[in-house]
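User: Sequence recovery, please. Input:
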């Protein structure tokens, strides 16, 4: 049995802590906020999107990005910064925008997604999570442009058989009748059965409660980690705002801030914040929310019912580590939501949130060992950290326990 300290009380850190306890370790979580799940895991889109994993970096995306930037309501915003981390990330992202890189990454993420689905089912059962607004209504990605829809439908037909089905406009409406409530013309959609949705913040809270009940759990230590102390090539302690904390091993799972912690040891993690917005509006008896999760492909907006609330998540803003609500982006989101699902929820009482997706250029997370003994990573989950957290935690806990990874880690590791 080892004593492992996990840095970060977001969904990735908490699932890692659970997976380590399950393997017989003693575990401490260090979190700087008073509550868990207050970072990117707080009000995200809630998608457990095990199959819809294709990363943003793809052939044609740089050209599309130029169009998006010219559209004030477009999904992308870019503010140049005088920072090497922004420009080097952008260069690596542009290099990753190719068909072969996208296909390789998608294959790895599909395997991670499938592993995560199994790991989530086990955790849900064994941690006895209560009400987390879990449903598996399936996911419908709707396309406005016929050419785009036909391209994706052709690719689907040519690829290996999966649970995805290409649907005409009328078939989309049959699957999700609330699409009738708008004047938006959708050419068609891809429906994937089995895709799920849940409240990520509630999962964090309940998981923290279950961790606290576990006999080998050493607690959630409220402190801000400021650096790591090493002896030779081994990390031996954390330097925190509350003093030093030593242990046999350490897992960096601090979302975007992981890059600052790694930098303290001279490790350069290619992470950049992709800022997103979400809107959460109450659903009352008179409303007609979508029951399946709907993604508006061209606008990159997703809609999901999470319990009695409609959650809408959108936008990719490359504006640095800035959590301010930009009024123009908020107005644009509210307009899009009212146009697309006018009768789905009480938008007059909606709340707005922003979060920073801790993203790598390819969209693949970095899991496992570092060049330092006793230091492990579970970082860079980008737009799908809720989805991947369960599988990634399982992999990292296996590695720390001295076992082989259950999945090939090619492309899912820190490259140094
Ligand atoms: C708008 C939006 C929508 C999204 N929708 C989805 C979705 O539908 N499905 C999906 O799978 N994913 C989604 N994501 C992505 C997902 O939310 C993230 O990938 C995931 O939450 C990352 O989890 P994390 O634990 O790595 O980071 P975080 O949740 O940010 O947790 C990191 C924690 O570390 C703590 N911390 C940081 N630095 C320190 C320090 N120095 N000392 C101590 N503690 C520290 C922070 O306080 C924080 O609690 C979305 C993200 C956004 C922004």
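Assistant: Recovered sequence (416 residues):
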């Amino acid at each position: 049995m080892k004593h492992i300290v996990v840095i970060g009380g977001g969904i990735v850190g908490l699932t890692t802590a659970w997976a380590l306890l399950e393997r017989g370790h003693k575990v401490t979580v260090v979190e700087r906020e008073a509550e868990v799940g207050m970072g990117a895991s707080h009000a995200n889109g809630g998608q457990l999107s095990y199959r819809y994993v294709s990363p943003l970096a793809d052939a044609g995306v740089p050209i599309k990005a130029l169009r998006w930037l010219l559209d004030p309501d477009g999904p992308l915003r870019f503010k140049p910064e005088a920072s090497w981390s922004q420009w080097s990330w952008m260069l690596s992202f542009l290099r990753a925008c190719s068909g072969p890189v996208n296909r390789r990454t998608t294959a790895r993420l599909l395997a991670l997604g499938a592993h995560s689905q199994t790991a989530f089912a086990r955790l849900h059962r064994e941690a006895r999570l209560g009400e987390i607004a879990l449903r598996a209504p399936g996911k419908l990605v709707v396309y406005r442009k016929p050419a785009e829809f036909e391209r994706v439908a052709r690719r689907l037909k040519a690829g290996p058989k999966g649970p995805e089905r290409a649907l005409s406009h009328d078939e989309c409406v049959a699957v999700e009748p609330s699409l009738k409530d708008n004047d938006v013309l959708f050419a068609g959609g891809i429906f994937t059965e089995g895709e799920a949705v849940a409240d990520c913040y509630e999962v964090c809270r309940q998981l923290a409660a279950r961790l606290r009940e576990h006999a080998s759990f050493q607690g959630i230590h409220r402190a801000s980690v400021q650096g790591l102390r090493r002896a030779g090539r081994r990390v031996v302690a954390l330097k925190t705002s509350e003093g030093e904390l030593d242990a046999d091993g350490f897992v960096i799972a601090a979302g975007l801030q992981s890059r600052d912690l790694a930098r303290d040891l001279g490790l350069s993690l290619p992470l950049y914040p992709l800022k997103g917005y979400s809107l959460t509006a109450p659903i009352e008896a008179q409303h007609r929310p979508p029951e399946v999760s709907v993604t508006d492909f061209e606008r990159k907006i997703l809609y999901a019912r999470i319990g009695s609330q409609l959650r809408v998540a959108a936008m990719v803003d490359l504006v640095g580590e800035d959590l301010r609500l930009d009024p123009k982006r908020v107005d644009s989101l509210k307009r899009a939501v009212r146009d697309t699902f006018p009768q789905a929820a009480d938008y007059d009482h909606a709340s707005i949130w922003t979060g920073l997706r801790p993203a790598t250029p390819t969209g693949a997370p970095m899991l496992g060992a570092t060049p330092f003994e006793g230091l492990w990573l579970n970082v860079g989950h980008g737009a799908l950290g809720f989805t991947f957290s369960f599988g990634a935690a399982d992999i990292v806990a296996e590695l720390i326990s001295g076992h082989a990874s259950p999945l090939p880690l090619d492309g899912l590791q820190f490259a140094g």
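The longest strand covers residues 272-282.
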